[in-house]
User: Fold DUF4829 domain-containing protein from Flavobacterium lipolyticum.
Amino acid sequence: MKKKLFVLLMMICVTIMYPQANKGKYNAINDYLTVLVKDTTKTIVIVKEKISPNEALRLFSGGKLNNIPFSRVNGIEERLGGILEPLYKENDFQKMRKKYQNDANEGRSYFAKNTRWNSADFKLKTIFYETFDTIIFKRGKGIPIYRYTTQMIALSEPMYYKGRKYLVIAVGIGDTTPIGYLNNYIIIMKKINNKWQVIQRGEKYWVD
Assistant:
């Protein structure tokens, strides 16, 4: 009986703590959106699908998703982008990779499996939520649902780095024009004076 009661109490604690943990991480995203969206009265479009953790890890590391260390020249890593040393540490990256890496979403490796954003995750009220396929369809058909200057943002689920010291978020920025595209990069955030702030931005890796 005591064992069943203990298990029940643990389940209740996890149920309560899990949304609180997400709320903390999503506060970081909302803090960053206040930087991206200067005019909070303007409509923006959030891609419903979350950028996959695999893509976020690639952006962070500069292109790799394995446990093979980068080669070094004169003690400096040969990397094509991502987060730079000294914030990037191979051992810390590998811990994060093992925790968050998952099987690629078949045919849609850019997006995570079965996870989507919803209105409860964001504080901005002037947000439309669209699936990526719907956005592409509207582009292709030229349907003027949004103004052509409407900002479009894709985001990953935040990942903890170096314990809970930092948050890692992949970001894709574009617009809803017919020729629009997503410019991808990674950000590292740290809580400073009780507010999440970007301390480093890593540009997309490029492969020749």
